[in-house]
Amino acid sequence: MSKYNPVTHVIFDMDGLLLDTERLYTEATQMLLDEYGEKFTWEIKNKQMGKKAVEAARIIIGAEKLVHHLHRNNIPICVATGSSKMNYEMKTQKHKDFFSLFHHVVLSSDDPEVTHGKPAPDCFLVAARRFEDKPSPEKVLVFEDATNGALASVAAGMQCVWIPDERADQSQLRDKVTLILKSLEEFKPEDFGLPPYEDSS
């Protein structure tokens, strides 16, 4: 029996969740700021995470197990990211087989249907519409690591599993998101009416 409302479709954010890119962004930005004696603080980074690339100037972890599991069980999955096509191609070039498992990818920075970046709900609503059977928002589960992304999924009327950075202030989202986890490896599909892992007891 599901602990939460059952879902039929799943949307994943990419940066920091499927790919360990947020750490690289932080290091690159700090290198630039070092020249000016400035610090790229968590407060600044947290405001940028999840936004379109133009607005914002954990290597595949438990994500791989979960994505393969959902794909194997014919659960429609997609990616909704703030990246542009150029950045997406660059980030995923060594992971083509993995990203081929997704039904589609919404690249918010380039997509004409995505008017506003996260925390607006646009990218998740567009992503849901592009599934063949166009599920209603309450049937969609979103996985996010960024505060802005979690807010966007909630605004879209979808359930959200939030896997925040350990430095994130969880108090502002604790009552909004559906579930907060430290890692995707903690996620139990059956809690949302999805097929359990084959090795689950």
Order of helices and strands: EHHHEHHEHEHEE
The mean pLDDT is 85
Please identify which CATH superfamily we are dealing with: HAD superfamily/HAD-like
Provide the CATH architecture: 3-Layer(aba) Sandwich
Amino- and carboxy-terminal Cα gap: 14 Å
Query: Can you tell me the CATH topology?
Result: Rossmann fold
SSE topology:
Layout: E1 9-12, H1 22-34, H2 42-48, H3 62-72, E2 77-81, H4 85-92, H5 96-99, E3 104-107, H6 122-129, E4 140-144, H7 147-155, E5 159-162, E6 179-180
InterPro entries: HAD-like_sf, HAD-SF_hydro_IA, HAD_sf
GO molecular function: phosphatase activity
Organism: Lingula anatina (Brachiopod)
Structural overview:
The two termini are 14 Å apart. 30% of the residues lie in helices and 12% in strands. It is an alpha/beta fold and 201 residues long. The protein has one domain (9-185): Rossmann fold. Mean pLDDT is 85; it is low at 53-60. The chain has a 6-stranded parallel sheet with strand order 3-2-1-4-5-6, sandwiched between helices. It contains 7 helices and 6 strands, in the order E-H-H-H-E-H-H-E-H-E-H-E-E.
